[in-house]
């Protein structure tokens, strides 16, 4: 072993108990024989970008969906996955740690032992490896963190990075490479799979949706490993703060939550703990709300509560909110442009445009300093370092003091306390759901590799139901890609780049509708809810996040239902049927086809350059 990782942990009594928990797997993955059914060829999620994606991913675009079935499944075209004498698999943790990640490794290792007892799994990059064994895994099963293998922030983007990965896989004689991470990591996985196919490298690349932000969501992916745990742990912390606010009756708590650009964590925690207010970045962006608008909205809420003799409250903010505010986002774009040109931090303010300079000087000094931080690799601001909660608390306090002086507010002095829950939950013991979900995804990774598939993401659907109802499969990563077009600088032409992009909160979805339905009650009635600490047994152990349960996300289930209807049509409409039946079928199918063609067009999907 030439790695510093994999050192046995010293476990508490609870950790020891959790390490004995055996995650469940659905019936389709049980036993020594699994069958795979291939669907039709896939296309890009973004129809307007299909040509661009297919041109870049010549070898991995248009691959079919794969569904894994139990050996006894009565599906004529399903193939039995043949076990190989040995399979060598490399695994890499990419990006930020997420609870449950270790169970992906355990699940893959478990599947390898069942189907290929002589196989093994390794780490990667710089060819620094750790062979996974039962003894190594013993103190990492159902545990948080990424410390079994460590995590890498390295991106596989440049020619040098890709060639290094290719050389490492060949030197280690890997049959498969499993990349565990979110949207950026799995975009890298897709590109790596294409390069490996082009180079005729035998290593197959598989992605796993693991991110606490919950933003790797699409028609194939319902949830991400870690999101359930993160939201439950944060919801308890928020609920404790709500109880404190209700008891002291004199503070407003501004709590910023992790989640990067999307507000999934903030929305879910609101539905679990019922704070007085949440401001979602997607709402702000859609309504083009300014800093002044947000300040006024919060101040009006504070004043309305004061009229009921309530001088406390809890307000949640996603960390990506700062980039959703139009004038702040434009300011950040100017700052980042100057930083990339090599302008020193001390000289930035003097080179801003007049309006940007005025906004910059208006902001408090601590925010000005944070906005000057160099952007992340994806061009976004360093969101975890920008204290949006303190900015809004500061602006609200100033406005409330102004209203007091003007006589329009006659209540008690406004007092704020700020928190950032960004790291407290990331290393938590994973929830029962995340333990099971990650373990199942690890098993699926084995079957993807055994089936010889390359450039696929392991998927599970029907997640809101018990494990024995889960549907397991794999989808080409290229089928999840979209092409966003950016204009870089004045007069620049639009540039399209295929990638997995973070899914934002759907403002037309059922989860958001549930929030809006309860928003006034949450604001005025203090209906705080405490789900309690993370539970592994008894009441609450099998609970799942609200946003998963309220949405109808079983995409593959509905595809199956559609196929059943089409099969019925074929059974009814065949040579020998009546003229009336044939006419009715033709009329109905023509209408359906026309509607679907319109709905599938780029203009209908809103996929136009911006």
UniProtKB/TrEMBL annotation:
Keywords from the UniProt entry: Allosteric enzyme, Cytoplasm, Glycolysis, Kinase, Magnesium, Metal-binding, Transferase
Chief site of localization: cytoplasm
Subcellular location: Cytoplasm
Taxonomy, superkingdom: Eukaryota
Transmembrane segments: none
GO biological process terms, semicolon-separated: photosynthesis; response to glucose
The protein's annotated pathway: Carbohydrate degradation; glycolysis; D-glyceraldehyde 3-phosphate and glycerone phosphate from D-glucose: step 3/4
GO molecular function, one term: metal ion binding
Gene Ontology terms: cellular component: cytosol
Domain Phosphofructokinase: 111-446
Activity control summary: Allosterically activated by fructose 2,6-bisphosphate.
Listed HAMAP family: Phosphofructokinase_II_Long
Biological role stated in the UniProt entry: Regulatory subunit of pyrophosphate--fructose 6-phosphate 1-phosphotransferase.
Subunit structure: Tetramer of two alpha (regulatory) and two beta (catalytic) chains.
Family listed: Belongs to the phosphofructokinase type A (PFKA) family. PPi-dependent PFK group II subfamily. Clade 'Long' sub-subfamily.
NCBIfam families: PFKA_PPi, PRK07085.1
Protein name: Pyrophosphate--fructose 6-phosphate 1-phosphotransferase subunit alpha
UniProt source species: Rhododendron griersonianum
Upper taxonomic lineage: Eukaryota, Viridiplantae, Streptophyta, Embryophyta, Tracheophyta
Gene: PFP-ALPHA
